[in-house]
Amino acid sequence: MRTVASDIDVLARFGRALADPIRCRLLLALRDAPAYPSDLADSLGISRTRLSNHLACLRDCGLVVTVPDGRRTRYELADERLGHALDDLRTAVVAVESDRTCTDAEEKGWC
């Protein structure tokens, strides 16, 4: 029997996915359109092995799904609302100054 993830678990998974710049770039790329791993690796300029690890994380977090397409596998966002959520997050943080980081908070365990 499947259990539904709690709100906290859902947010934690989303936060884990967004904690890495490569995964952020992947989510933004998939927000624009479904894609094949080889194309994603090329467009992001990373190795296929590295890409595979990040896609596995995003799959495990429930944010992306695989879609068989003949002999290939295509990746896409698990829910189209994720694309809207990414857009909302991007526009909600425009007040963050580009020269500020979360390093102090990370060192104190706040992030």
From TrEMBL:
InterPro entries: ArsR-like_HTH, HTH_ArsR_DNA-bd_dom, HTH_Metal-responsive_Reg, WH-like_DNA-bd_sf, WH_DNA-bd_sf. Keywords: Cadmium, DNA-binding, Metal-binding, Transcription, Transcription regulation. Pfam families: HTH_5. The keyword Transcription regulation applies. GO terms for molecular function: cadmium ion sensor activity; DNA binding; DNA-binding transcription factor activity; lead ion binding. Residues 3-100 form the HTH arsR-type domain. Metal-responsive transcriptional repressor for the cmt operon. Binding of cadmium or lead causes the repressor to dissociate from the DNA. This is HTH-type transcriptional regulator CmtR. It comes from Streptomyces griseochromogenes.
